[in-house]
Amino acid sequence: MPSTDLVFRSQAEHRAWLAAQAALPRGFRVGVTRFAFEPAEAPKRAQMTLTLIAAAQPTPAFAALFTRNACPGAPIIVGRQRLAAPALGALVINNKVSNVGAPGGVADCEAVCAATARLLGIPESAVLPASTGVIGWKLPLSAMLAALPEAVAALSAAQGILPAAEGICTTDLYPKIRRADLPEGSIVGIAKGAGMIEPNLATMLVFVLSDLAIEREALRADLAWAVERSFNRLTIDSDTSTSDMVVAWSSGLGGRPERAAFRTALLRVCGDLAEDIVRNGEGVHHVLRIRVRGAPSEGVAVALGKAVANSPLVQCAMLGNDPNVGRIVAALGKVAPQLGIDLARLSVEIGGIVVYRDGAFRLDRDKEAALHAHLRQAELYASAPPAEGLRFRPPISWPPHERAVEIAADLGLGEAEATVLGADRSHEYITENADYRS
Amino acid sequence: MPSTDLVFRSQAEHRAWLAAQAALPRGFRVGVTRFAFEPAEAPKRAQMTLTLIAAAQPTPAFAALFTRNACPGAPIIVGRQRLAAPALGALVINNKVSNVGAPGGVADCEAVCAATARLLGIPESAVLPASTGVIGWKLPLSAMLAALPEAVAALSAAQGILPAAEGICTTDLYPKIRRADLPEGSIVGIAKGAGMIEPNLATMLVFVLSDLAIEREALRADLAWAVERSFNRLTIDSDTSTSDMVVAWSSGLGGRPERAAFRTALLRVCGDLAEDIVRNGEGVHHVLRIRVRGAPSEGVAVALGKAVANSPLVQCAMLGNDPNVGRIVAALGKVAPQLGIDLARLSVEIGGIVVYRDGAFRLDRDKEAALHAHLRQAELYASAPPAEGLRFRPPISWPPHERAVEIAADLGLGEAEATVLGADRSHEYITENADYRS
Known about the structure:
Low-confidence stretches of chain A: none
CATH architecture of the largest domain in chain A: 4-Layer Sandwich
Helix content of chain A: 25-40%
Strand order of the largest sheet of chain A: 13-12-11-14-10-15
CATH class of the largest domain in chain A: Alpha Beta
Strand content of chain A: 15-25%
Largest interface: A-B, 80 and 80 residues
Largest sheet of chain A: 6 strands, mixed
Radius of gyration of chain A: 22 Å
Number of helices of chain A: 12
Number of strands of chain A: 15
Oligomer: homodimer
């Protein structure tokens, strides 16, 4: 499933690789600024980063998918309206405050777009907003309006997309950039997202830029197709966010690719970013790649994969390098009645080793040792006791490798299949999210 | 919702209270034995407790509900057949090995029932088996058959149901007993269950004994009614077990109660045990009592309550005494589209304090302090840094109080309502379940 099989031995190695991915497609510039503010709702000072991505001129070839959460943020409400606009000229993205359910949130969001539009000399409808961070807080509007000219002044293509990949992060351990190069031009994507993640027909904050010549409707169809096969098949904590958004946007300054090659390249960028998001998920020690085959439909395969990925007991077992196959079968059995399927022909493999077949577990002490070894090789890091015993922090801020725990279930019921990405559950996740208003 | 509001300052106080609840209904005896064995599947020695509950003579008035997990344990498969038997004479219950998916599991289960029946001089069909513990392991049959005569020899009514309440435990911190006394007789229930818990039309291991005169069909109807309103509305970790079972059983040696009084008493015992199970859930620091009102149906109210209870981010916030209302609204918004309901009229209260109304959060620093105080008063204990920094253990082995975090959502859509019980997610849960084959 991953298009790469990278190993990084240090943050410096990872940074060098990111820098090599970061070249912007023709026609785009990035500007970032950072500032402090006082939230009205909480007693502690906070930091916000404002990220601007601007095109040389507004272009019609853009696509966006938004969260299906019934309590969406103001940028989602405004963003849905933008889909009808004739062209997109800028993305304005802030972290720290998601602008969800805040009184006056839509008006504040529109004020940020209007100010951005004035500074860039483009229509307000050509500015697409995005926000991520605490739910319920109001945007610090005056501080943002004061910071916007700095972001505009910083606009540059020289450092590529790396400043934006860093600027949109919240609890992410590291920035995420993926690219695909075609003879006619390139596709470059960035993503943030480490918690509150089980996308539902949209996802996290993901921005994909291209210079490949493609029409708006084709881009929208291809983005929906690629998202269904990438971001919609991952879960870190089952908590579909109020602010998820995927945007794809082309300057059209490059050549016209074969449509099939474009689709494949777009899916590769989305699929790699989806893997990156899970690998960098809050407190993730193991990525789980759960392939469900022999399903009567792709939907059933995805639902069973997600049942395994979202099982807290499977997640904890994986953390402990415990090949607890009983919990995997129990998780499949939990949702099978709701899906109306029979598990009589179920077989399950972990790391290519058969652990369940013909209605019974197939286990012995040698297999157990081999399964344990498979989990250990997929481990990104182990929890280390912190000095004060409570506040676990990941010891690394780069992805050491791209290996995963490979779980395969065959239902013996049909021809459909799907692969779902999940993660384990760790002390670091608890620390991150039990912290007072993380 | 709880029928009591108890406070315990020590394990001794809790034990004294349990002993006062433990008197058996007329016609029942309990026998327990414990022994060590060598699992075939794992390298370490294990302990098993065998618990026998026997009636003076087999009686027809029994009812049982079983898990809907599609991969049920052998005792569930055998137990479903027992529903057609003319009478029940004994329950035989083991912990440590759940006998799920083990090769030859049903035959082993039947061998235990047959041996029990021979020793008691009753038909094999009058013995109902139950197992809980590791999934995938085989029952240690010869060790169990060797231990059974000891359990039969130990049969006694003198210590009441307490030895059984202890004998069925696995990762439970303490035994759970609840009773209701009517003029004509009594109802006494015990429960085990601390992880892999989101019952689906059946639950955990729960055994309810009575001497009240009631017909089999009436008992079966009333048990289904009470379970729907108690165990089916709680979740600790969303993982519906392969081995859940609730049994209600009357000796009929007492008087005949009013049917309505019987139902109410049965629901009280089931409801109190449900609260006990969540309070004693693995690593639980806070019980969450989520009341959803104004719903178009009870099913919608339960689904929304469970979405909040099963949100990892809500769970972690509660652990940290963080009234993170954004995560509660996000969890409701996550499932609302699947339920086809509109949240425009949603209001949310925590501890009686309005936090969301008319599409926006209603928050300020004073409310924040009051919400934080509400969470703190509901805390059962706080995580303490363990000596070696990784292996968190609950510092108490009794329930210090019965207070909960009170979350109320009003949808403004109808007259239906339901209360769901949930819990926070802690370092102690991770430690418990990441341990190699806990």
